[in-house]
Design brief:
Strand content: under 5%
Number of helices: 12
Number of domains: 1
Number of strands: 0
Helix content: over 70%
Distance between the termini: 43 Å
Oligomer: single chain
Radius of gyration: 18 Å
Shape: globular
Length: 217
């Protein structure tokens, strides 16, 4: 899941030469950085071998909330709702950004999706991973050129194909998280990310689409 999902959270374009030229060097490293950071978060090699607490941040946050006067069951349900909402907002923002070519929208969506997925990480993994991702995305967004780079016509259909994985992450959390099975969710995310990669490879590049329009004209 770590390798397959790296493109999903990276917010990279679908191969447009113009977008790549306009992106900052830091933004162009997003795929590599996300792959390394998210992979490290799931593996958490710095976690003590003697650790016997909750395996995921999901359960840890739920148990922690029991110290605030609520039961751990209610706490876990609240974390579950939070993950569902974050993944939904993240998928929507990435879809909107992809349709309008808005880098800040896509970067913000990637951040929210990563926050949702972090509940499946070991607590110490998320503790290191998420601050790193937040700092990275803030730096990237601060250098982005405009909140939404308005396109003449939003490309909703193309955006859906580009964001199959993003939407799949939301569907996975919304449909499966209520079974409270982290392994099942990881498997579902692996499948959706794989489908997302397949959908992206089926998309023609901007240059190909332009040539096709010229030929049709």
């Amino acid at each position: 899941m770590r390798r397959c999902c790296k493109a999903q959270y990276s917010g990279e374009s679908d191969g447009s030469t113009q977008e790549m030229k306009q992106s900052s060097p830091l933004a162009r490293l997003r795929v590599v950085l996300y792959a390394v950071v998210l992979g490290a978060g799931f593996l958490a090699p710095w976690q003590s071998a003697s650790y016997t607490g909750p395996r995921t941040l999901w359960v840890w946050l739920g148990v922690w909330q029991s110290t605030l006067g609520m039961t751990s069951t209610v706490g876990i349900e609240l974390v579950t709702w939070l993950a569902v909402v974050l993944s939904g907002l993240g998928a929507l923002m990435r879809w909107w950004g992809a349709a309008h070519a808005g880098r800040r929208w896509q970067a913000s969506g990637s951040l929210l999706l990563a926050l949702a997925v972090s509940v499946l990480m070991p607590p110490v993994g998320a503790l290191v991973t998420m601050p790193a991702i937040v700092v990275y995305e803030v730096v990237v967004m601060s250098g982005a050129d405009g909140g939404v780079e308005a396109a003449k016509t939003p490309r909703w259909g193309r955006a859906i194909l580009r964001e199959v994985a993003s939407l799949g992450v939301f569907v996975s959390f919304a449909a499966l998280s209520w079974q409270y099975n982290a392994r099942l969710l990881e498997q579902a995310l692996l499948i959706t990310c794989g489908l997302g990669l397949i959908a992206r490879t089926a998309l023609p590049t901007e240059a190909s689409a332009t040539d096709a329009k010229k030929s049709a004209a």
